[in-house]
Amino acid sequence: MQTQTVTQLAATGASPSSIIFSVAGADNGNREAALIEAFRQKNGSSQGKVGRLLRSSSLRYGALGFAVFLVAWYLATDLLKLPRFNFLPSPVLVFSEWMSREPTHGVSIFTPIYYEHILVSMRRVFLAFAIAVLAGVPLGILLGWSRAFHNFFFPIVELLRPIPPLAWVPFAVLILPGVETPVVFVTLLAAFFATVLNTVLGVWSINDDYFRAASCLGYTRLDVLTRVIVPGSMPFVFTGLQIAMGVSWFSLVGGEMIAGRSGLGFLIFDAYMQVALPNIVIGMITLGILGYASSAAIRRLGDRLMAWQSKGRNSQ
Amino acid sequence: MTRLWDSKLFSLAHWSRRLRSPVLWQGLAGIVTFFAVWQIARWLGWMAIIPSPIELAEGIPEEIAQTGYWQNWIDSSRRVFVGFGIAAISAIVIGVLMGMSTRLRAAIFPLFEVMRPVPPLAWLPLAILFWPSSEMTMAFLTFIGAFFPILLNVLAGIDKVDRRYVQAALSLGSSRGALFRRILVPGALPSLFTGLAIAIGITWEVVIAAEMASGTNGLGYMTWDSYMTHSMIGIVLGMLSIGLAGMACSWMMRWVGQIATPWQK
């Protein structure tokens, strides 16, 4: 959780010194891991989630939370038909439509169109994510490695970064050809900046002693890059990638709603236009699942690549 | 509390030091090069759709002078601050309750974890259906965008509080109220302000998209309207205004955070 907060800080562009400071704080926290872990378990924190979930009491409370939510949703929309709530689809309607072989509004787990929307959205997100990572990580390493390069180019990055990706939509639609490229462009923007920024921070977080040791041992610049910088910045890069994946889905939905002709964002907005209410919720749930799954996949990949790291971290 | 006039902002030595540092000049050179390359590309006839920096410098003051430009700022800011304010209050209250009660946390946290990955904009159609006015719809969307980041950071802040402080306070005979006021609040504040700064950035992003999709005024609508009328200068002005607004709000949040937590560097 701590590393995440640090990088969220980074994502908003806090001053580097304050971020490095909090990184130092994170190390300090690891020393106390045993103590704090005990406190956390007593306090029931989110950390050590898997272990906690397996213990039955929290599982029971979690299930209770879901049940209360679903029952309240059902009561408000279906049974009591509270004012305003009666415009919303009820959970029963949504799930029966989602699981139906012959859905009234044409979208369920048995219809090919559902998977087409999913595939289109996923293709866009992964394409945008891949471009953002392939361009963002090298640029971030350069910006973090070379002072002069940083001083010269970072202000340009800072000039463009505050513009929210969705504000680029009209611009992108006019400048870029086709329907697909503007949506992908808008999706990759935020992911790109998150990757660049976290890679820079990752390089900065590497202990100077490693660079000194490397030059004492006669490493070439290439060796320094592959043996010091890349592994050293990896924890930050991966937190950056997680943020990047999250913001990709965020901007994708906006892009598809405003400028798309297909995909889950379009499905939701089209369902609204056609008054196919269950489809709105189906689209939302699907987006939530896909967003969660892709972030989890990156986290898993990061943990595997950084096996030396995971001992110190108590988040999964 | 630091006073405004004691801060770096009004220190002559600070500014003269910054003016003499090479970092500033290298950065300026970078930005100048960026605009120069853009301008030269336009002179060479590339990117004919995009206005050149000189055209922008001439056109933007005219656009700003048009009636209604500043009203857009007010409209968008109002939506941002209404949604953000409600999100901040409710996230802090719920976060503190979840931080203090294991059971409540076990009950609510998984539910929130499932709702959090749904992008805020995906709520737009339901929000339009549910809320009677478009103003409420947009405030609700900004609420959704801001709520989860603030909540997560409040929880992280409460978790970060050193348990030895709690033990020390308890063994010194602290009451529950004092524990809250003297240990929990100062311990969680830095993290809370991180969350607030992130959240206000997100609310600007959400409000822009909501205005584009369903608004009739505001900065997002202005940008969209410029697109409809193919006014490239209007689009760029909209983008710049939105970027500036988001940045100003984040700065403000961080500044308030620094004043509220003077012990943090």
Automatic annotation (TrEMBL), chain A:
PANTHER family: ABC TRANSPORTER PERMEASE PROTEIN MJ0413-RELATED, ALKANE SULFONATE ABC TRANSPORTER-RELATED, MEMBRANE SUBUNIT
Domain of life: Bacteria
Protein name: NitT/TauT family transport system permease protein
Topological type in the membrane: Multi-pass membrane protein
Matching InterPro entries: MetI-like (IPR000515), MetI-like_sf (IPR035906)
Main localization, broad class: membrane
Keywords carried by this UniProt record: Cell membrane, Membrane, Transmembrane, Transmembrane helix, Transport
Domain ABC transmembrane type-1: 118-298
Protein family: Belongs to the binding-protein-dependent transport system permease family.
Membrane-crossing segments per the record: 59-76, 125-145, 152-176, 182-207, 228-251, 271-293
Record bears the keyword Transmembrane: yes
Subcellular location: Cell membrane
Species name: Aminobacter ciceronei
UniProtKB/TrEMBL annotation, chain B:
Superkingdom in the source lineage: Bacteria
Membrane topology, as annotated: Multi-pass membrane protein
Record-annotated membrane-spanning stretches: 21-41, 80-102, 114-132, 138-158, 179-207, 227-249
UniProt entry keywords in alphabetical sequence: Cell membrane, Membrane, Transmembrane, Transmembrane helix, Transport
A Pfam family matched in the record: BPD_transp_1
Localization in the cell: Cell membrane
InterPro entries in alphabetical order: MetI-like, MetI-like_sf
Gene3D superfamilies: MetI-like
Similarity comment text for this entry: Belongs to the binding-protein-dependent transport system permease family.
Protein name: NitT/TauT family transport system permease protein
Origin organism lineage: Bacteria, Pseudomonadati, Pseudomonadota, Alphaproteobacteria, Hyphomicrobiales
